[in-house]
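== Item description ==
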Amino acid sequence: MTCRELIRNCTLLTILLSISFFIPGCSQDKGNGKKTFAFVTNGVDPFWIIAQRGVEKAGEDLDVNVEVRMPSQGVADQKRMVQELLAQNIDGIAISPIDPVNQDELLQEIASHSILITQDSDAPDSPRECYIGMDNYTAGRMCGKLVKEALPDGGEVMLFVGRLGQANARLRRQGVIDELMDRSEDNTRYDAPDEPITNEKYTILDTRTDDFDHPQAKANAQDAIAKYPNLKCMVGLFAYNPPLCLEAIRDAEKLNEIKVVSFDEDPVSLQGIIDGTVVGTVVQNPYQYGYESVRVLNGLANGDKSVIPENKIIHIPARTIRKDNVEEYWAELKALIGDAKPEKNDKAGATSENKKKSTEDQKDPKSDE
């Protein structure tokens, strides 16, 4: 194991252990007379720590109880957490569905017993009240524009992502493809993976998925470098993909040959932009995802339907970060979340009303944003 890999593993473990946790009893939550809302992520990642800050701030501002649950073991873990929340008569849940098509029954269950909204990744065919997050297709096209900046004369491109079952992943990927192919905007279009997509300038060789397995994600990057000697750009669509692509490129001693285009605000990606090893990144606003989710749930719980727009979508705009604005953005990010680490605890989840420690073994975190 390299020093960099050891640091990454330690960082992920610290994230998992540092997330605050509390599972309240129903009487304890309801006894203080406040409503309780839950924010359920699709994994464990620094991205969600930023969202947690927004959730906690909204809880303070609106004087409500809030919880953050971060499943580390995928669909089954997310389902378990949701059912625990429903058993506590939670007043509302904002969830990032891991596999919306195959989680329809779970989403129906939430809507039947509580208030359901989606955040980060949508489930438009579910009975959710609204979706809060960026327009992932538009963000994908923004990412495609970064690829064009990296390769103005064209070249071979490879895409990397955790899984394509999630709506956000599918839409980001399609946005990149449509931008590079100079197509009209159509977020219903879908190019199947495993077949090259090409025009006179760009060839998208393939889309590699890793199911949030970080060693597999790096292996995918290494394999692509070995298999395609003319590969010119690697695009990481989930936060952890670009840093792992960068590691594989360094290992292959091709930093000056292969460009990296990123998604989200991983510190390695931001430092890469400063160093010139990453072209740029498209970032979301997870803090606002958290804050807005609590605000909307609270409004709905109090009978205020005006918190939902007519189209039932609240888009939080994405931003493109390049060398000329990366340091300003990073300073904003640090000011928002602070440099201090959260209190050490042993299981993923949080509440602003009260915090207790709980011991439960966790496996390696698998995450997305």
Remarks:
- Confidence is low (pLDDT under 50) at residues 3-7, 13-29, 340-368.
- The longest strand covers residues 202-209.
